[in-house]
Amino acid sequence: MRTLRGIYANIIIDISHESVDRVFQYRVPERLWGKLAAGQQVYIPFGAGNRRRKGYVVELTDRPEYEVSKLKEIEGIVRESVTAQSQLIWLAWWMKERYGSTMNQALKTVLPVKQKIKEAPKRQIRLIAKEDAFREALALAQRRKYSARLRLFSLLKEKNPVPYDETVNRLNLTAAALRPLEEAGLIRVEVVEKYRNPLLEMKRLLAGEREEAAEALPAAGWQPPVLNEQQRMVSQAICREYDQGIRSTCLIHGITGSGKTEVYMELISHVTAQEKQAILLIPEISLTWQTVMRFYLRFGNRVSVLHSRMSAGERYDQYERARTGDIDMIIGPRSALFAPFERLGLIIIDEEHENAYQSELAPRYDAREAAGELARISGALLVLGSATPSMESYTKALLGEYHLFKLTCRAKADAALAQTEIVDLREELRAKNRSIFSRRLKELLEDRLSKGEQSMLFINRRGYANFVSCRSCGEAIKCPHCDVTLTLHRDGSLMCHYCGHRIAQPKLCPACGSPYIAPFGTGTQKIEEMAAKMFPKARILRMDMDTTSKKGGHQEILSAFARGEADILIGTQMIVKGHDFPKVTLVGALAADLSLYAPDYRCNEETFELLTQAAGRAGRSSIPGNMVIQTYQPDHYSIQMAARQDYEGFYEQEMNYRRLLGYPPAVGLLTLQISDHREDRLDRAAGALAAMAETFPDRFPGKQIPFIGPVNAPVYKVNDIYRKILYIKNENYDILIHIRKMAEACLEGLEGVALQSDLDL
Ligand code: ADP
Ligand code: ZN
Ligand code: ZN
């Protein structure tokens, strides 16, 4: 808990009140100096009538923002301790400041579930009377001819306890009729299952996988694997820091399959044994249910999950279980960070490099940063883990801001890293091979098919290159609402992956009328067709957004593949994220360059991560694995370093590039994106921003603040909305925040234009 200093407090009024978007300043009476903390609930006089209201302290300061004599005084503290709810409210405040959203948006994000979805708890009636007391009660009921009561007693003599609802309905009893029996100590009404448990549901979905571990978990006799030397060193070191109260963020850099998950479990065991609670963030639960089941197997009902496909009621229950202490650990995507644990001790972020931790909705928070802040105010430890840490995190580790721990070998002694080769696609063309499978990849696929081993083939972006173009005029068929090409689907229709617009494939070129229009490039459906043609006997599964849109789609495809029901799994990058398929011995990246062309300074990093993680999928067991990277840029360092599994080598080159071009984490980057469906208004707003940027030398004398733009966004039009971007670079966080606020003020009077900002450091 962080105690704040200062004699003026900025306070947001209790959230039931509507004017929540503003803070109000109050004087802190002397008796409360040094006693206020971030998120603390206080009583304050509010409004003209000075009605007593509750508020949350978000900031203390020595500088009054109003005339001091007009400031009212805080009346008192509502509760001495800061509750989970108040911590989350403080976090919302922090997010609003950091990411530039409204307080309402921030509060909706951290306190997502508002209403309980009513569902009566499951109950049962248990007979608890001693023998003579029971005999007496029975005699009394007979004498007075209480027939319903008699029926209940005879039922309870046969079977104890009995289910509440069924019994009450069948015997025509009422709650009122049961109460005297309860008061007399004859029966007890017990709550059996208070909350919906999503893991039970998940287990039913996976029926057959762990059926023997049915009700009571951990199953009798089950033992976690004995940690190897490196795993033990890392988990002991982190536990020691934890016990000593050291709260520097820890970064575990462990190669794929090095046993990071087992280390996480050790850490969680350690803090939960001290009555503390833990949050484990994972990028996407539907892709990592295997991991979740490992936690379930070890921790049983002390663990729960949150995920996007749960109903509002199920979610509500999990938040309640967290709040009441029914569970001490939760696993989920970034929103699981807001589980209201009163005794939070540990936050772990697995695969911390994933961009799933970046929210796309306002507030556009980064879960890693928000977790850092939450850990700080609740006194918890933050642990990040990855085989390919993000540039930002690794830089902090090298600077000593984070504590770095390494796992350098695979956990299973006999599992070697995959043998990786790069295939130059230009060579294939020279050899007149126009197939999407290089000769080497084809040869390896044939080999695996003949041995009955499994293969995975992926491309980096869904439908990215699967468009239709005109051979006469060269035009590609584009979405009328967005600046992107339409993607060809197998049913012959063309679809926009940005806005969902769908049309039948035209016979003539819309631009020149030529009949010579044809598909160009390769999507997952096309690869599936070509693989089926080339290997007619192979059993092929495809996993992409089209085949997984229904509930449980991911699990179904992945578990079918895990059970060995297919020889080849084809998909987008989602197939190479985080699974453990022991029988996969070949992974092919069909067009590794696709992600190198993305209009984003992170594209080299993303490509390296993806290829390194993919290589980790091949050869998880004792059978040696192969990885083939097909590319037109065999010398690119992202591809070279991924083939060598050389993270440090990649980091060094990439950091040079970021320094040279001035990108984070070398310098801070503020991205201001403005959008409007009217281009004229957008141009006017862009003009205003440009004029604002021209004032930087006067506003910040002596500071170098380079900026680019406003320029058209890489995809200028989406869903009929035009977008322009202004990029601003500086090392100083406060300056960039200040500029963001300047931009907000500068656009305030302009109608229609929306501003969205990102601040990368
Ligand atoms: P990571 O999270 O680093 O990818 P995992 O924790 O998933 O690695 O471990 C990879 C595989 O090795 C899993 O199948 C896991 O059960 C197994 N494993 C991990 N640690 C050990 C150990 N100490 N002894 C035996 N097997 C282990
Ligand atoms: Zn044409
Ligand atoms: Zn579109």
Automatic annotation (TrEMBL):
Keywords: ATP-binding, DNA replication, DNA-binding, Helicase, Hydrolase, Isomerase, Metal-binding, Nucleotide-binding, Primosome, Zinc. Residues 241-407 form the Helicase ATP-binding domain. Its EC number is 5.6.2.4. It comes from Enterocloster alcoholdehydrogenati. CDD domains: DEXHc_priA, SF2_C_priA. The gene is priA. This is Replication restart protein PriA. Initiates the restart of stalled replication forks, which reloads the replicative helicase on sites other than the origin of replication. Recognizes and binds to abandoned replication forks and remodels them to uncover a helicase loading site. Promotes assembly of the primosome at these replication forks. It catalyses: ATP + H2O = ADP + phosphate + H(+); Couples ATP hydrolysis with the unwinding of duplex DNA by translocating in the 3'-5' direction. Its cofactor is Zn(2+).
